[in-house]
Amino acid sequence: MKLSEVKRILETAESVDFGLENGKMVPEHFHVTEVGVITKHFIDCGGTVRHEKVANFQLWDADDYEHRLKPGKLLNIISLSEKTLGMEDLEIEVEYQSDTIGKYDLGFDGKKFMLLSKTTTCLAQDNCGIPAEKIKLNLATVGAGNACAPGSGCC
After folding, report:
1. How do beta strands 101-108 and 113-117 pair?
2. pTM of the full predicted structure?
3. Residue 21 and residue 102 in contact, taking contact as beta carbons nearer than 8 Å
4. What is the rounded distance in angstroms from the CA atom of residue 96 to the CA atom of residue 18?
5. Does residue 75 sit in helix, strand or coil?
6. How far apart are the C-alpha atoms of 55 and 36, rounded to whole Å?
């Protein structure tokens, strides 16, 4: 989800809620402790130099149970980040504490923002020797209709 989409949603939202794909909710007293730009400049295993940039929100679950982040307040934080950091309309990555700091993509289910699991992948699969996925066959169906009958002498 891009920053412009988040801003559009917040303009009419009554509350700011985040959920995880497993059905758990980020506690409603969370804080957004950082809004920023993360730049990653790297080389993949195939030797290609890459450059990625994302907007980053960091959510923090504090012990101040009366805290509630309102949509207007988050819009103000985003606006300040755009002005101060020159933040562009980037894809958003969310950091949220689980067993360690987790990184999530951001979605919206019509009611709440969703922290969507991210996965790793090889960016140079054509260069680093990863075999193509093999087609799995059910041997019971291979040759069905053309199979030799036992004892027929065709095999």
Report:
1. antiparallel
2. 0.79
3. no
4. 10
5. helix
6. 6
Per-residue pLDDT tens over the stretch 26-83? 999 999 999 999 999 999 988 999 999 999 999 998 888 999 999 999 999 999 999 9
From the number of C-beta atoms within 10 Å of its C-beta (0-12, 13-18, 19+), residue 18 rates as: buried
DSSP per position, 19-43:
EETTS-B--TTEEEEEEEEEEEEEE
State the DSSP code for 2.
B
H or E stretch at 59 = strand 49-61
Specify the amino acid at residue 130: I
Can you tell me the distance from the alpha carbon of 133 to that of 14, in angstroms, rounded to the nearest whole number? 47
How far apart are the C-alpha atoms of 106 and 3, rounded to whole Å? 10
Residue whose token pair is 């730049």: 39
Nearest Cα to 35, choosing from 18, 17, 60, 12?
Answer: 60
The C-alpha torsion from 5 through 9 and 15 to 17, rounded to 10°, is: -40
Instruction: Convert 62-76 to b/e letters by CB count within 10 Å (16 or more is b).
Output: eeeeeeebebeebbe
Residue 128 per-residue DSSP state = T
Angle, CA 110 vertex, CA 104 and CA 115 arms, to 5°: 10
Q: Domain limits of the chain?
A: 3-117
